[in-house]
Amino acid sequence: MNATIENLADHFQAKVDAEVKIEPKDWMPEKYRKTLIRQISQHAHSEVVGMLPEGNWITRAPSLRRKAALLAKVQDEAGHGLYLYSAAETLGISRDELVDQLLEGKAKYSSIFNYPTLSWADIGSIGWLVDGAAIMNQVMLTRASYGPYARAMVRICKEESFHQRQGYEILLTLSKGTDEQKAMLQESVNRWWWPALMMFGPNDAESTHSEQSMKWKIKRKSNDELRQQFIDACVGQAEFLNVTLPDPHLKWNEERGHFDFGDIDWEEFWEVVKGNGPCNRDRLKARRKAHEEGAWVRDAAMAYAGKRVESRE
Ligand code: 3HC
After folding, report:
1. Pocket lining: 273 vs ligand 1, CB cutoff 6 Å
2. What is the tens place of the pLDDT at every residue in 200-256?
3. Beta-strand (E) ranges in the chain?
4. pTM of the predicted model, to two decimals?
5. Which of 102, 110, 125, 221 to mutate to test the pocket of ligand 1 (most atoms within 8 A of CB)?
6. Spatial contact of 143 and 114, defined as CB atoms under 8 Å apart
């Protein structure tokens, strides 16, 4: 049969609607492929850049137990980046190309990683709020229509939920500590709350990709739906920590069955996305340095791979 693009597209959408996973060798619309490369690579970059704010505290963790957990967590983020780069590669783009886009400042990564970690409590807040927001968004992605992405997300989510709990436990310990520790906890939550809400992306009305991505079942819930779900989950957790979320408009709305909340500073969000956040320049500088300093490892690995091929010939 001589299938036209149109009936290929219909067949593709019917598969998506029937919850049949799309695999790398299946026909897919070019825009679906591009959307996935965009989203998966932005996600991979976020994981890799996301190592930096926490890596900053490895040498200053308050105990050996905390240091070991933090080290493991940061290492997990590197692993997540690798699974995601591998998933993106199945769509016909090379890892080198993706990494170059990041290092040249052409690729986006999550706004949240452009904020500084100023106190030990920030490691707890990142676990609770940043990983918590990430999980809320990523659990949905375990059901994404593209097989390699969905499968990578299953493992990532398992690890993320450990990360979230280790962060919450740090905060729980501080919440039972001295007045100084309680103040450190509150100050940290004050700084991370709003940027964590921004992680879900612009409001639905401003989101350029949501509608199509939801039709393709790459995204299952909209940015605003997930943000609301996250806020609703956090309120009780904040009470348990005896911490105040820095939003005077946060109030239960019986009619909606959700918490109402104040306005997000979208100007700040777009400034950070454009590269003008508190740490954007430092983050890219650190990634470039790590890439340059790791050149010998890549060269050695390639030389070894070449030798193995030669010895088989
Ligand atoms: N930071 C930076 N850019 C953002 C952003 C954010 N928080 N939210 C949205 N954007 C960008 C989008 O990338 C898009 O830009 P582009 O057109 O140049 O690619 C633009 O803003 C418009 O946003 P849309 O809502 O239309 O974009 P999406 O449909 O892609 O939705 C998303 C945004 C919800 C973040 C979606 O891409 C997604 O679910 N991505 C996968 C998850 C992910 O990347 N999470 C990042 C955090 S990972 C993490 O936290 C690691 C963990 O270890 C802590």
Report:
1. yes
2. 999 999 999 999 999 999 999 999 999 999 999 999 999 999 999 999 999 999 999
3. 251-253, 258-260
4. 0.95
5. 110
6. no
